[in-house]
Amino acid sequence: MGIRYSKEDLRHVKQDWIAWWEGTIEHPFYGIEAVDDSMAGLPFSYNEVTPMETEDLSAEQILDGIEEFGAGIHWFGGAFPKFWPNYGPGLMAAFLGSPLHIRPDTVWFDPLPVEKLEDIQPQFDPDNLWWQRVKKLTRLASERWRDIAIVGLTDLGGNLDILASLRSSEKLLLDLCDSPEEVVRITAEITNLWMRYFDQSFELTNGKETGCSGWSPLWAPGKLYMLQSDFSYMISPRMFKRYVMPDLAACCDYLDFAFYHLDGVGQLNHLDQILSIPNLRGIQWIPGAGQPEPEEWLDVLKKIRDTGKLCQVYVTRAGMQKIISALGWQGFYFHINEDMMLTASQAREFAQLI
């Protein structure tokens, strides 16, 4: 086994995560994925697109390659070895028939070949090619790494994000005004199917025993998901209330540990509504490309924490220390993300300062 992590290591990190969720952790909570000192200077890379199984590359060989890469990684704090089938954000659109195109650094979806919005009738297809690929990789990874790594769920997406892939963003923006009842119908159907895909994925990862993770750096001892609605960047708070909030509330009630991916300053218009959801446990704040780093948004972070929600941010070591100096560390999970991956020696040195 190439991954240098033990069953005991995993047990300890899970104890810290449980304490974090319960509000009883007694130290600043952060995570670092570091590399061997001999690998110093490598650019930071995280969650690259998973290769596809082909005639020349088996699913087992895909996992072999991931394990080989993991052999050079060290995990500190709340970080832990993890694999999740990554075929792009909102992959559920592919499960529902949207053609998916993959490149090494990106993916995109083609809309369904339908003229009218009402022609979209989302249905569960157990034989869908992408669903079968995700199921196979998830099952094999769970069997291989059961005791020393977490196998996470693929990125299913959010209701309007999935519908935007099926319909196209441009047409969906018009649909919100021209066919609101149809949008409500389809998003509700997508949410019901989302829960079905989640349930089957959770079972494949043996989530009741191992806990749950996904594309985010979080882990929880129950059903966890990083909910999102990137499409909401383009709509008003009034439309957000009508088209997004019912889905978010339903998913928060369904999950044990619901988080929301607040991605970009354009979503701050919706933050008050999101924070009002009782069963939402926390917010992941990402300011967006070209914006100041998370530690420069102390008012946003304070607002999240003042409502009793948890908060996760990607920060540098200096950014983490700035937030702690201003707001304290309680309720935050700081995932250290710098331009170059830290070495194990640098991570150990930082840990001694915390």
Describe the structure.
42% of the residues lie in helices and 15% in strands. Helix 7 (180-204) runs parallel beside helix 10 (245-254). The strands form three sheets. Strands 2-1-11-10-9-8-7 form a seven-stranded mixed beta sheet, with helices on both faces. It has a two-stranded parallel sheet with strand order 3-6. It starts with 6 loop residues before the first helix and ends with a helix. It has helices at residues 7-22, 59-70, 92-95, 129-145, 159-167, 169-178, 180-204, 207-210, 237-243, 245-254, 271-275, 298-306, 317-327, 344-353; strands spanning 29-35, 73-77, 82-83, 100-103, 106-109, 150-151, 224-227, 257-263, 280-286, 310-315, 332-336. It is built from 14 helices and eleven strands. Strand 4 and strand 5 (106-109) form a beta hairpin. The chain has 354 residues and is of the alpha/beta class.
In short:
The protein has 354 residues and is α/β, with parallel strands linked by helices. Helices cover 42% and strands 15% of the residues. It has 14 helices and 11 strands.
Shape: globular
Strand content: 5-15%
Strand order of the largest sheet: 2-1-11-10-9-8-7
The counted number of beta strands is 11
Which residue ranges are poorly predicted, with pLDDT under 50 across at least 5 consecutive positions? none
Order of helices and strands: HEHEEHEEHEHHHHEHHEHEHEHEH
Number of helices: 14
Rg from C-alpha positions?
20 Å
State the helicity in percent bands.
40-55%
The average pLDDT is 94
Question: Which class do the helix and strand fractions yield?
Answer: alpha/beta
Could you tell me how far the N terminus lies from the C terminus, measured between alpha carbons in angstroms? 31 Å
Q: Describe the main β-sheet briefly.
A: 7 strands, mixed
